[in-house]
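Technical note accompanying the year-one report. For the benefit of new consortium partners, we illustrate the data format agreed upon in the data management plan: each record pairs a sequence with a structure-token string. No post-processing was applied to the example shown here.
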Amino acid sequence: MKKIVGLTAILFAVISITFAQENEGGNAPISVPAVVKKANMKKYPESNKYHITWETEKGNYEANWGGKDGEANSVTYTPSGTFVEIVKEIPVSQLPKSAGNYIKQNYKHAKFGDVGKVLDAQGKTSYEVEINGKDKIFDANGNFVKSE
């Protein structure tokens, strides 16, 4: 009986870990190439301290870890392991003033989601603010660029 309970617990743990890795579609597990996982461990070794969840986004792979929602850091890689960008969660107070003013003017009663500072592979900084389920993108100076 102890063996059955033990095996059931191990099986449940394996299934839980497998289904923790989701793709854009929801609950289907994804297979992350070893080269992508290795690139993340090399670039962000501190991510190893957390449970990393993976998802696909526009044909790329996104690693998420840290923070209370598990997405304080979101790093995107191509299928070959090339770094695309990192989005680090920040408080609204750290947005450039002009981005804050734009949001106050255009989205007075909006529902806000995550706010992040983006650093891309070329070293360019921008900001993302989730408003009503869509990302609003601002440049490094806080000027509105586009909605995604």
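Partners are asked to follow this layout when depositing records. The beta strands are 53-57, 60-65, 73-77, 83-89, 112-120, 125-131, 134-139, 144-147.
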